[in-house]
Amino acid sequence: MARYTDSVCRLCRREGTKLFLKGEKCFSAKCAVSKRPTPPGQHGQARQRKPSEYGLQLREKQKARRAYGLLEGQFYRTYERASNMKGVTGENLLSLLERRLDNVVYRLGFAQTRREARQLTTHGHFTVNGQRVDIPSYLVKTGDVIEVREKSRASVKFKRLLGEDAPVVNLPKWLTRDKNTLQGTVAAMPARDDIDFPVEEHLIVELYSK
C-alpha cells in the first residue's frame, strides 16, 4: 500500500495550516508552519498568484484528505458514499470521516495523531463492543464502546493515559470517556458543529461534482 514517507511538515506548509500530523509537536513554537508560512520547494517564497476556482477546490480537498490520512482512492470512495446518503453531501462526508475507527481512537486520546491511531488499530489494540477490530476504516455508530484490549493495557503506551498525570483530552461532544479508564463511547453521530477542523466542505463537493 502506498505511504507518504517524506516530512509531514511539508504537507502542513503546502496547505498553509496546521494539520496536526505530529501531535504535541504541532503546538510548539518551532512548528514549521509558524516558522515558514510559505509552500515548500525552491519557489515557495515567490509571489503567490491568485488561485483559480479549481485551485481553491483542489487545495480544500487535499487539506481534508491529508488531515485524515487517506489515499485519493479511499477519499473519493468516502465521498461517493456520502453523496448516496440522505442529507447534505458535504456534511455527510465529514461525518463519515469522523466516524472512522482510527479517527475515533485519535479523538478519544488513545493516540497522539491519526497516523499513530491507524497503526495501533491495524495492530489490533482496540475492541468495539468487545470484539477485536483491526480495520481503521471501520465506521462506528451510536452506542458503540471502543476500548483498549486487555492484553494491550500493560504497555507503557497505554499506561501513560491513566492516573493524575494523564494528558488532558479535548473530547468532541459526540464522544464520552472516563479519564481513569481506557474506554470510550459514541454518544451520538457527529454533527457539523462538532467538527473543529477548518474545512469548507462545499468546495470538495463542487470539485467532485464536475
Give the topology.
Layout: H1 8-15, H2 32-35, H3 53-68, H4 72-83, H5 89-99, H6 101-107, H7 114-122, E1 126-128, E2 131-132, E3 145-148, H8 156-159, E4 175-177, E5 183-186, H9 201-208
Antiparallel strand pairs: 1-2, 1-3, 3-5, 4-5
Helix pairs in contact: 3-9, 4-5, 5-9, 6-7
Describe the structure.
This protein is of the alpha+beta class and 210 residues long. It has nine helices and five strands; from the N terminus they run H-H-H-H-H-H-H-E-E-E-H-E-E-H. The protein has helices at residues 8-15, 32-35, 53-68, 72-83, 89-99, 101-107, 114-122, 156-159, 201-208; strands at residues 126-128, 131-132, 145-148, 175-177, 183-186. It has a five-stranded antiparallel β-sheet with strand order 2-1-3-5-4, with helices on one face. Helix 3 crosses helix 9 (201-208). It starts with 7 loop residues before the first helix and ends with a helix. Residues 25-29 have low confidence and may be disordered.
Characteristic key phrases:
five-stranded antiparallel beta sheet; 9 helices; alpha+beta; single chain; 210 residues; 5 strands; 38% helix
β-sheet strand percentage: 5-15%
Which stretches of 5+ consecutive residues score pLDDT under 50?
A: 25-29
SSE run:
HHHHHHHEEEHEEH
What is the rounded Rg? 18 Å
